[in-house]
Write a structure and sequence with these properties.
Number of strands: 30
CATH architecture of the largest domain: Beta Barrel
CATH class of the largest domain: Mainly Beta
Helix content: 10-25%
Strand content: 25-35%
Structural class: alpha+beta
Low-confidence stretches: 1-40, 122-130, 136-144, 192-198
Length: 512
């Protein structure tokens, strides 16, 4: 039998076609598999032990971030947590916790209100008024006028230790990206009218300029003295008897501090001994309000007199912090770069035209349970701030309502939501279900540049006293035209990187 010759061309193309078909099937399968993996990897829910939502009572220090070789690293603790040395021998009862949370929401709202009040101002307060203001322990201290405006601060939440003076002494200050002026309570000093405390009741030491060889006052009617106006929204004032510049600063929670404006040697302790001579700060003589239990405030804003600007030659306007995921652990504040962290993802830093001191972000979308929530882009057109001192994130009302409704949909198994303490409107009684674990929807914020921030479980819900009150830890603005605020509760567990010189802000997960 004669065998027909093989048509090589036909065989080749038939074989090639089969291989192409097979390869296509493989690639299509892999592509589908990767797509499914991508959807599977997108965080949709947090499932946690119910008891893990409750705050721990003992301190468990974290070592993450503290062994960096570059920059100055300071340990960060929560002022109400067991890691803060003044709280280590205190226990909180249920009554204490109820009182704490009732005050907590009021103070946080006061800070938010002060931010929006400041943003509404069409210009800074710039009128310089000179008063012959004696600052002593006599009754004349009460002649301080009330602040004509407030900065955005308050007593803050997170504490670091720094050194003042020569020889240096260590003081605990709350750090605040929404404030510019650094100040510490000074000796001699007193509390303002209406307080039953005196300086000597403080558990934190009081800075005494007379014991330092490097302290100097700033004179009145100087350019340096006048720079206080943009940082404090008021003053400056003058103590004519000694021609000394006087600062006066009021906060949204009605706290205030007033005293001499001077220069001192600042020592950043912990993992470094970086020293800055001639550091501008306030020496507080008349302090009133919630600044109890620590020495003062460390201003990390964008004003010329902030710590970030005064140390720009050393640290290049670059700093980061990691707030611990709960109050029973520690985080860090680092000034300067750490040689580059590949895990950090950045989004552009924006500036609000009405006030350039704030750090702004461009929020463009919100996801709940892995699904993008339908929110018109115009809702975010007023901008968004990131603030270390505001606790609970605020969103424009339309964005909040859409996000909240999606969250409630994912919580239907736990009954109808309730309002607690007149502030959070999406709370659940999980204790009634006798559960060991609880699952709740994951929330993610998307910023310009493609950055998506998936909130930690500890940054999504807040437990008020006990698990009978587990609430969505996000609140609405009263008006849609108000900018959003990313609060510190949602920043927990991330290293938040401020590359001010580079015009960007970044986030890295799992840093503390």
């Amino acid at each position: 039998m004669e065998i027909a010759p093989m048509n090589f061309s036909s065989f080749f193309f038939r074989s090639f076609g089969l291989h192409v078909l097979f390869l296509c099937l493989v690639l299509c399968f892999l592509e589908k598999g990767f797509a499914l993996a991508g959807r599977k990897d997108k965080l949709t829910h947090h499932t946690v032990q119910l008891n893990s939502l409750l705050p721990a009572t003992t301190c468990t220090p974290s070592t993450k971030g503290h062994n960096k070789k570059h920059g100055s690293v300071l340990e960060v603790v929560h002022k109400h947590g067991p890691c803060y040395e003044h709280n280590q021998h205190k226990t909180k009862t249920a009554t204490d916790l109820h009182a704490y949370y009732a005050q907590f929401f009021k103070q946080d709202q006061a800070r938010v209100d002060s931010i929006y009040s400041r943003l509404k101002a069409t210009k800074r307060y710039s009128t310089k008024t000179d008063y012959n203001l004696p600052i002593t322990q006599s009754e004349d201290t009460n002649t301080f006028p009330a602040p004509s405006a407030t900065t955005v601060g308050g007593s803050g939440n997170y504490v670091v230790k720094v050194g003042f003076g020569t020889p240096a002494k260590s003081f605990s200050l709350v750090f605040d990206t929404g404030s510019d002026l650094t100040w510490t309570q000074c000796q001699p000093c007193r509390f303002g009218t209406g307080s039953d405390l005196t300086c000597y009741d403080q558990t934190e030491p009081i800075y005494d300029p007379s014991l330092s060889t490097s302290y100097a006052n700033i004179s009145c009617n100087t350019a340096t003295c006048n720079e206080l106006t943009s940082a404090t929204n008021t003053g400056p004032y003058c103590y004519r008897a000694t021609n000394t510049c006087v600062y006066l600063i009021g906060y949204g929670d009605k706290s205030k501090s007033a005293g001499y404006y001077g220069t001192e040697r600042l020592t950043l302790t912990a993992t470094s001994t970086d020293v800055f001579d001639g550091f501008l700060f306030g020496c507080g003589q008349d302090n009133d309000g919630t600044f109890v239990g620590f020495a003062g405030l460390l201003g990390l804003g964008r004003n010329k007199i902030s710590l970030i600007e005064q140390t720009a030659a050393k640290y290049g306007r670059y700093f980061s912090y990691c707030l611990p995921v709960d109050q029973s652990s520690t985080g860090f504040l680092r000034l300067g770069k750490d040689g580059g962290n590949a895990a950090v993802k950045f989004t552009p830093l924006t500036t609000l035209p009405v006030d350039k001191s704030f750090y702004g972000l461009d929020l463009v979308g919100i996801s709940v349970s892995g699904q993008q929530v339908s929110i018109p882009s115009t809702v975010f057109s007023t901008g968004t701030l990131i603030d270390s001192g505001t606790v609970i994130t605020r969103l424009p009302a339309a964005a909040y309502t859409a996000m909240r409704d999606a969250f409630r949909e994912g919580m239907k198994r736990y009954g109808e939501p309730k309002t607690v303490e007149g502030v959070p409107d999406t709370c659940y009684d999980l204790r009634a279900y006798n559960l060991e674990t609880v699952s709740f929807p994951a929330v993610a914020f998307t910023f310009s540049g493609g950055l998506t921030l998936e909130l930690k479980s500890a940054g999504t819900v807040i437990v008020i006293v006990d698990t009978s009150q587990v609430c969505l830890a996000i609140l609405p603005n009263t008006e849609d035209r108000q900018p959003g605020i990313i609060g510190n509760f949602q920043q927990k567990g991330f290293e938040v990187v401020y590359d001010v010189a580079g015009g960007k802000i970044g986030f890295a997960a799992g840093s503390c």
